[in-house]
Amino acid sequence: MSADGINLLRTKVFDKSKWMQLPRDVVIGHDVIEQLPTVCEDLALGDSVLIISGDRTRDLAGRRVEALLAGSYDVATCAADPNNPVETIKRAEASAAKAGFVIGVGGGRVIDTAKIASYNTDRHFISVPTAASHDGIASSRASVPTADGNVSLAAEPPIAVVADTAIIASAPHRLLASGCADIMANHTAILDWELSHRLRGEALSEYALTLSRMTAEILFKNADLIKPHSEESAWIVTKALVSSGVAMSIAGSSRPASGGEHKFSHALDRLAPGKGLHGEKCGIGAIITMYLHGGDWEGIRDSLKKVGAPTTPAEIGIDDETAVEALLAARTIRPERFTILDMGLTAASARDLVKMLYRE
């Protein structure tokens, strides 16, 4: 008797699914801010827009964006207050709820405000960065300062990025160097991701990991080209920052660009608030974590120096003992994210690691 007609078990099918949100339009180059009306028309997001900018960035680019869109859209504006980010987000959300879409014109804080406001009101947003200081310009994560340090939140990735290299190149070079450091730190972030995959079974995206590694390597190879107020430098770094943001969208998390070096940075946010830029602290953390991984930590240090980024705590106004405390406290930052700094670092070893940063 044949059992072919008896089916006691459900046939297994491949039912894995994933939703990736990536920018539809990415425009990078000289004076591309003039193309913003065309980008908005192409995306067909509605007939009203909320433009979020800071006091300085409004003068730098925000007013120009307002003028470019005023003839075709009902334009509302929101000024970001750096001293009261939570209140700014609330005001931005209230205004975003009345608009068809949101545009963030400014640096990291402004872009993050636009991300959160658009995410919480189910609106698309366009990223118009005025500086290339970190990979938040194109990612789906937002950083919000709190009394206990910066908190990383899931947020709306930009549906478009319009990055004018003339504007970005005019920003202080320190911001561009910080962006470079943030990207170079991808090297150690993916090493931590692979370590967690091997030891903890954490899921790994080969596509996202490869893109993140390639992005970091591009900046290592072109470190000599990163010069102050150079549009070519702005173009190279901005492309890398967008690529890093895309890697995070593919992975569905910040894992391709955030490991122990970022936990070190966030620990410093708590212990020494206001000292150093995000990318700068990640770069210093990457030197340390690359050493712990047994990799080319000197190569990271030398590349950071070439682009003008700091390589020691003293260069960003942080004393060495505070840096030691941050290394030891890193394990308490997002404890679910396993990194090389979660493997039993001692106080004596942490002090040796900080001393290492000053070696010639």
Name the strands of the widest sheet in spatial order. 1-8-5-4-2-3
The tally of domains stands at 2
pLDDT < 50 runs, ≥5 residues = none
How large, in whole angstroms, is the Cα Rg? Answer: 22 Å
Structure description:
It is a single chain. With 360 residues, the protein is α/β, with parallel strands linked by helices. The protein folds into two domains: 25-170, 3-Layer(aba) Sandwich (Rossmann fold); 173-356, Dehydroquinate synthase-like, alpha domain (Up-down Bundle). The protein is built from 14 helices and eight strands. The strands form two sheets. Strands 1-8-5-4-2-3 form a six-stranded parallel sheet, with helices on both faces. Strand 2 (48-53), helix 2 and strand 3 (74-79) form a beta-alpha-beta unit. Helix 3 crosses helix 4. The mean pLDDT is 91.
Ordered list of secondary-structure elements with their pairings:
Elements: E1 25-29, H1 36-43, E2 48-53, H2 55-69, E3 74-79, H3 85-96, E4 101-106, H4 108-120, E5 124-129, E6 141-146, E7 149-154, E8 160-164, H5 165-170, H6 173-184, H7 186-200, H8 206-221, H9 231-251, H10 260-271, H11 278-292, H12 297-307, H13 320-329, H14 347-356
Parallel strand pairs: 1-8, 2-3, 2-4, 4-5, 5-8
Antiparallel strand pairs: 6-7
